[in-house]
Amino acid sequence: MGVTSGTRLRGTRLRLPTTVAGRRRAVRGVMAACVLALLPVTWVHTAGTPRVRTARDVPEAPVAMVFGAGLWGGKPSPYLAHRLDTAAGLYRAGKVRVLLVTGDNSRDDYDEPDAMRAYLTKRGVPDDRIVSDFAGFDTWDSCARAKRVFGVDRAVLVSQDFHIRRAVALCGAAGIDAYGVGAGEKHDVTWLAGGAREVLAAGKAALDAVVRPSPAFLGPHEPGVERALETAGR
């Protein structure tokens, strides 16, 4: 059994081209594959980078969208807390009038939007200026639902700087005039892991931007953002 397995393994080893022409074709194939792999990342940076601003110089917008980033013991993770702090700062500075918190509530014991709301109200953001999207399962779903369910046309997006370009690119593809503000983070292991993940996520983002699939849960129009803006205008 061992000899047979070893023979099979030796028989399946990668064989390099033996001719000059064959090696050239192989190199060209590898180069083409690398270019194709980098195209989504290039698109994300090209579409997103020009619209990333600091909290100080971002244009005013009716709505700020805050993307979920996980809970620890039912409370926002440190990364999510930094996003929420940034969004609260935008609200206090008059850059936005309403906050749309979008995250995962797919289980009874996991509720990102309510945890985000509680965090913001404790920091002085009025409850009636916060709108919850309980089906923001990924970045595309959050952007598509903001446009199609909540009627958001213009927004400031808040996330970490390694994610904000993808968020801006996808919300733009969903039809939202979006600018992004990245919550500052030290470049630790978590930050590096997030940046590496973005390289892989860029492929799905590019596909979503082209196909524009319906989000996992679409549902009817929700007037929460409109009502909150009316309250803010009084």
UniProtKB/TrEMBL annotation:
Domain DUF218: residue ranges: 63-178
Pfam families assigned: DUF218
InterPro entries: Cell_Envelope_Assoc, DUF218
Source organism, top-level taxon: Bacteria
PANTHER family: INNER MEMBRANE PROTEIN, PROBABLE PERMEASE (PTHR30336), INTEGRAL MEMBRANE PROTEIN (PTHR30336:SF6)
Protein name: Vancomycin high temperature exclusion protein
